[in-house]
Amino acid sequence: MLRTFTARSCRGFWLLTGMVVVATSAQAAERDGNCATINPQPAIESADTGRPAGTLVLRGLYGSFAAMQALDVVSTNRALTQGGMEANPILRPFVGNTGAFIAVKVASTVTTIALAHHLSKKSRVGAIATMIALNSLYGVVVSHNFAEARRNAAR
User: Fold this and answer.
1) Rounded CA gap, 57 and 60, in Å?
2) Sign (positive/negative) of CA torsion 119, 120, 125, 130?
3) Is residue 26 classed as helix, strand or coil in its secondary structure?
4) Does residue 41 form part of some domain?
């Protein structure tokens, strides 16, 4: 992320993340039987593969999330070479060293995918919604980084 992302944008992200966590927790509690349900429904399986429904959707979302992280590295580096500044205080110390920056991004990507996979065992819909939200967020970040690099290059 670059310097023009404001604290308001970060608050919006955390608000969205909180809403997803609350929604998925309620859904997981309902599926686990912690809520009063009369007839819990079995997991729906795909007719042709025997895998739980949504498995291929999640795999696609995991792949697109990894691609978004790679694009974030590329767009951040391009914006930095054009005079931009990393706005994320956690990543700021790493952006000067490309290897360290990539290592941190890979570690955070693997961790995020592992957590989403773990969540999918309790709430497949919650995991899908979380990955869609994260992919959307990083799509905005990557787009912003490339736009910022273009603006800085034109100066």
Assistant:
1) 5
2) positive
3) helix
4) no
Measured distance CA(93)–CA(63) in Å, rounded? 27
Q: pLDDT, tens digit, for every residue of 31-60?
A: 545 444 444 454 545 455 566 667 899 999
Report field, pTM of the whole predicted structure over 0.70: no
Structural domains of the chain, count: 1
Kindly give the residue spans of alpha helices, DSSP state H, lying in 42-123.
55-81, 98-122
Structural domain including 110 reads 7-36+52-154
Residue 9 has pLDDT above 90, yes or no: no
Whether the CB-CB separation of 35 and 29 falls below 8 Å is answered with: yes
46: Cβ contacts below 8 Å, ≥ 6 apart: 52, 53, 55, 56
- The answer to whether 126 and 20 are in contact (CB under 8 A) is yes
Q: Could you tell me if residue 20 is inside a domain?
A: yes
Do 84 and 3 contact (CB within 8 A), yes or no?
Answer: yes
Residues 6+ apart with CB under 8 A from 103: 94
Q: What beta strand segments (E) does the chain contain?
A: none
As a whole number of angstroms, the distance between CA 25 and CA 35 comes to: 11
Helix (H, G, I), strand (E, B) or coil at 35: coil
